[in-house]
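Q: A small favour: would you put together sequence and structure tokens for a protein?
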Amino acid sequence: MLLQIKRLTCVVCCLFVVATLSAQDIKKQGTLFTWAGSDAIGGAATMSEGLIGDRPDFIEASTTVGLGVKQIEMGYTYSFDNDGTTQARGHSNPEMLWRLGFYAEWLEMRIGYNFSESRERSGGVDTNTRGGEDLYLGFKFALTPQDGVLPESAMMLQATVPTGDDSFTAGETLPAITYTYSWELNEKWALAGQTQVGRAIDGSTSRPYTEFSQAVGLVRTFNDNLGGYFEWFCMIPDGADDAPREHYMDGGFAYQVNNNLQFDVRVGFGMSDSADDYFAGLGVIYRY
């Protein structure tokens, strides 16, 4: 009993310290936590530094945009798939993601919207489908700075809500949690990864299932304006009736005109029979 009381006292003391920090310092911290025994300092890029975007790669950035900063990320993607009996072409735009830093340096709110159009040809008959997708809402928390082999990391709590057109809406709210992590290896190279688990709806049976996704990528900095990346990512259903596993590889380049404006291009291909044969896209990021 005495040991339990001591443990409870320690927990209460820790909570008191956290509460004290939150009242005085926590808003100014670049990350919500630091690694134990580490004096590393991380956080968002300042307005006088080059921006860090979530696009064009599949892996999200492991930093937030910073307190009071707004960042708009938009793009277009074309995709093609031919499974031998059906040819499918897809158009996706504007792939809008609005990121707003608020309350603290380590926190951002995220709002996303997209419009899709697909054309399928099977047996000489074309079927066209177009409409708005479900609205995306989320929060990103910058968790830790990098300290040697310990990664810079962030977590996103997110969901899509059923606001889309009948052809594209899931019909219910689909929550997900995402953990991103990265390591700056040297001045030119960085390694990044992302793990996500969320709720999804089977397109054939409309029944829910759990979807896991994983991604690993390499980032190359060529100079102050130009960077590139190459990555692998996959989506793995668990408990789905018909939804398949999909594996992809893609790469691209991003060019920063100035600290607050970036353009990007990307191209990728499917590595599994159920994945799209290939896709390509371009985009822009503006920070203010």
Q: What stands out?
A: The chain has one helix and 13 strands.
